[in-house]
Predict the 3D structure of the following.
Amino acid sequence: MTRPDPFDDELREAFAELTAGDRGHVSSFGDVVARQPARARSVFASPVLALAGVAAIAGLSASYLRRNRAATLVVPTEVTVLMTWRSPTDVLLLPPSWDVVRTVPNLNASILDSRPVSVAPTGDVK
């Protein structure tokens, strides 16, 4: 075990003096707990201030809406042309049975009933 350094005692005494000095400036815990909290004063405690705040917000909103309403949106003709453009290869994206997918089938019907019947040149039904 190492011997205690004499400087440690001096340091402890200096901290004890500082602690005692600080205790003289600080309220006791009981005094702090017993104190009533300070009542915060509201900005809108006065009806005049509240009314002025509402009027300011209404005025700013009205001026903002009036300024932005005057600006109209102009869509260039190039944009409208691009919106109506159709790719020439769009037809290739459609599945072969697209009319079957786009229609709602009857629950009592068979898919064979919806297929057209072709007649062979000999008169036999295929």
User: Anything to note?
Assistant: The mean pLDDT is 78.
